[in-house]
Amino acid sequence: MDGLDRLTVVVPTYGRPAFVRRQMRYWAGSAVRLVIADGSPERHQIEETEVPSNVTYLKLEGDFHSRMLRLADEVATEYVAVLGDDDFFGLDGLRSILRRLDHERTLVGCVGRSVRFFYQDGVVLAEQREPESSEFPPSVKSGIDRLYATYHQGKIGAVFYGVYRSKPWAEVVRAAYSVRFKTGYIYDTVIRALMTYRGPIGVEDFVTWFCSSENPPVRDAPGMDRNVGFMDWLTSEKTADEVATCQELIVGDLEALGNDSAIEIRRAVEFVFTELRSRYQAKAKVRGRLSTKCRQLVIRRAPKPIKRIGKKFMPNFLRPVFDWSVEPFEDLFTKLTDRQISVSASDLMRIKELVLASHE
After folding, report:
1. Secondary structure element (H or E) that encloses residue 206, with its range
2. This prediction's pTM
3. Judging by DSSP bridges, how do beta strands 123-129 and 327-328 pair with one another?
4. Which of 178, 168, 201, 208 lies closest to 80 in space, CA to CA?
5. How many Å is the Cα radius of gyration of the chain?
6. How far apart are alpha carbons 140 and 147 in whole angstroms?
7. DSSP label at 342?
8. Could you report the per-residue pLDDT of 125-145, keeping only the tens digit for each?
9. How many whole angstroms separate alpha carbon 113 and alpha carbon 210?
10. What's the CA gap between 220 and 258, in Å, rounded?
């Protein structure tokens, strides 16, 4: 075996049966154990006869939190990873990550390089996500150090979609989803704090997570709370008590590990939230600039045929202006290889074929 039999990939889903079937086709016959937690209404659920032998398909009532908590109970393998229902993991990327985790026992988990992809006019387009993502500097050694370095230059991207040792992952999921906050955006910060305190996270230079932009975010599923703006939640007096509760959740979980005092942890967690507010305030200023508003107006008002022609023939110097850096799948991966990032040709072709087939 190549190690994939020691990995469980868990997929929470709601209302996307076509993409659940695509996941099953992708993983069928793999040594990976796939567990899908589907909270959809019955009309969107999958028939048992469609489920491959290496897939556990759970029909669950309740919200996203309930599904994540159930998934934490389903993992019996050494390693685990969460995947979106329309995303992919490259199998060779997973193998590379597992080899590193086997070799570096101090790592709590490891993330690979990632790309964003979508389908348009018969073509799969893609761009690299968070190319600046890097591991903590060598001077960052303890859990407290990692909290203070949460937003270091080259902050580790997509922590939620890494591969982790199952025990700490389950602990983090149970703690993070034990409380329902008014905004779903905060859970990335909670999970990042709880996980990185437990141990360093590696960054493997192998394209592993293929993040889909084929669907809009799920907003109407129970527990997928995206209606409250994150900046409003962080700064409003109306949610101040909830923000304090969130901070105390992190402090309480980390204090229970017994490595540092509650005072030290609380000080570090307050620093994380201060940095978080500062980052989102900076983003809000950028969105408020006249140049940004004008660009958004052009993008929003231009007819779709004009947009597509413009994107197709846009000169390179205008691409950053209009935030259009995507290119055909193969072209992007040729460039990534030139940057010393490993790419699996077999993963690439299999994923591309499934994406194209799902849009026929």
Report:
1. strand 201-212
2. 0.89
3. antiparallel
4. 168
5. 21
6. 9
7. B
8. 999 999 999 999 999 999 999
9. 9
10. 40
